[in-house]
Amino acid sequence: MTGKVLSFVATSDLAGKLRGKGVIGRSARSEALSVGWVPTNSLITCFDTIGEGPYGSFGDLVLAGDSEAVCPMPGGADMPETELILGDITHLDGTPFECCPRSMLKAAIQRLREVSGLDVIAAFEHEFLVEGLNRSPGDSFTHDGFRALAPFGTDLGSAMEAAGISPELLIREFGPDQAEVTMGPKPALRAADEAVLFRALVQTLAERHGLRASFTPLSSPGAVGNGVHIHLSLRQSDGTPATRDVDGPGGLSAPAGAMVAGLLRHLPEIQALLAPSVISYARLVPHRWSAAFNNMSICDREAAVRICPVKPEDPNADSKFNWEVRSVDAAASPYIAMAALMHAMAQGVEDDLPTPLPTKEDLSELDSAGLAELGVERLPQSLGAALGRFSSSDSAVKWFGEAFVKVYAAHKSSEMAHVDGMPAEDVFTLYRESY
Questions:
Q1: 87: helix, coil or strand?
Q2: Whose CB among 10, 73, 294, 335 lies 3.0–4.6 Å from 105's, allowing a Cys bridge?
Q3: Cβ distance 342 to 259 under 8 Å?
Q4: What is the protein's known function (predicted)?
Q5: What is the 3-state secondary structure (H, E, C) of 246-297?
């Protein structure tokens, strides 16, 4: 007897977790699916605590699935194939809920398009742990390490392609149990959708292979961190590349330069949205190949914004040219992270900011005066500090609305309170298990 189809309508929420409700016997392949939702769900943390917020038991919302964001989720011996559908959280009249991450990204995309006339193309790189391979030390970047990942990686690549996601590289990364997968460039909303779907596919397929995947920013205090690197480029409405000007600082066009300048100016205010866990800030320190300052550089993998080089003689150089944001991790919802980046970019255009000059120094060796001379500052060094910058930011209120800023602060305050006073190893273990 064939079982009923199971479909899960979901949002990537303020904790970067995939939450929603299952629908029995109905498929997004044949009809639009939606489920009921409540405002207070926005306050559920990654530890399933609930922050103190304005909603209480009141309010009814709709989590409306998008037929353009459907992913078949592979089954296994004891698990049926299911459907995963991403959607928007709306009020009953269809207007966006103030704390819907996907709706916030849509608004940011529209704002950037209106102020610049340009569209953003994005590509995500994901670092994560694949636990259970029982590998000996010494196989990072090796063929043996790659082969150990191959059974899982082959199934992952097939599942990604079945979902319309373009896989590029599978890397046995430097850290113990660490892997990285890179994805092809897509329009901003689709890129964020694919980032959400990718995480679900990784965890589903790892389980099927008897493994466990975790996207935790850091597995222990001294471990190699897991980041999310977001590559960004610009296109005109007809698809013409608009990112590169060989005569501009860093090779950036004037619009791209203004956007990067906006990113750097506002990065300290939005870092709580990009690296939103308590342990994220143990990764964002000098000499950990992450990002500790709000700087732009060329070929420097410790810059917050890295200009990615292209071969000048490449006929497709203009199309391939992009910059990479490196201060993000997977505790962040891809929708919220992308919305924050795009609002900062739009602000740079509105303020007509000049293209920043690339830094060339080891910024950790400079004092505050030296950093100030370069127009650079240290990023917040704890979630509490980052949340303080975000909560007091007039720009954040302008971009996201006062209601979201307050709810997000309450959400993250509850998360911090939950781990306050815990031994460090227990905190890292808790995040590893949650993500």
A1: strand
A2: 335
A3: no
A4: Catalyzes the ATP-dependent biosynthesis of glutamine from glutamate and ammonia.
A5: CCCHHHECHHHHHHHHHHHHHHHHHHHHHCCCHHHHHCCCCCCCCCCECCEE
pLDDT in tens, 267-308: 999 999 999 999 999 999 999 999 999 999 998 999 999 999
Q: Is 343 exposed, middle or buried (0-12, 13-18, 19+ CB in 10 A)?
A: buried
Instruction: Yes or no: say if 199 and 334 are a contact pair by the CB < 8 Å rule.
Output: no
Sheet holding 18-24, edge to edge: 18-24, 6-12, 82-90, 61-73, 34-37
- Give the C-alpha separation, 263 to 346, whole Å: 9
Task: For the chain, list the domains and their CATH numbers.
Answer: 105-272+285-364 (3.30.590.10)
Condensed to tens digits (0 to 9), the pLDDT of residues 223-254 reads 999 999 999 999 999 999 999 999 999 999 99
Indicate the SS3 state at residue 327.
strand
Give first-to-last CA distance, the chain, whole Å. Answer: 36
- List Cα–Cα distances, 417 to 103, 120, 178, 233, 432, in angstroms: 29, 37, 29, 38, 18
Q: In angstroms, rounded to a whole number, what is the distance separating the alpha carbons of residues 2 and 289?
A: 50
334-350 and 101-116 helices cross at what angle (nearest 10)? 20
Q: To which H or E segment does residue 155 belong?
A: helix 143-162
Q: What are phi and psi of 241, to 5 degrees?
A: -60, 140
Cβ contacts of residue 383 below 8 Å, gap of 6+?
272, 275, 276, 277, 278, 280, 281, 412, 415, 416
Please tell me the distance from the alpha carbon of residue 86 to that of residue 89, in angstroms, as a whole number: 10
Q: Dihedrals φ, ψ of 269, to 5°? A: -80, -25
Kind plus residue range of the DSSP H or E element containing 195:
helix 188-208
Copy the structure tokens of residue 216: 């935790």
Element (H, E) at 130: strand 119-131
Determine contact, residues 359/295, Cβ cutoff 8 Å: yes
Q: Coil, strand, or helix at residue 318? A: helix
For residue 66, give the H/E element and its range: strand 61-73
Tracing tokens 């975790």 back to the chain, one arrives at: 214
Count helices and strands in the chain by DSSP H and E runs: 11, 14
Q: What is the pLDDT of residues 41-60, one digit of tens each?
A: 999 999 999 999 999 999 99
Tell me the β-bridge partners of 232: 122, 323
Look at the block and give the residue holding tokens 């679900």.
200
User: Residues with Cβ < 8 Å from 360, sequence gap 6 or more?
Assistant: 297
The answer to whether the beta carbons of residues 245 and 251 sit under 8 Å apart is yes
**3-state DSSP assignment of residue 375:** coil
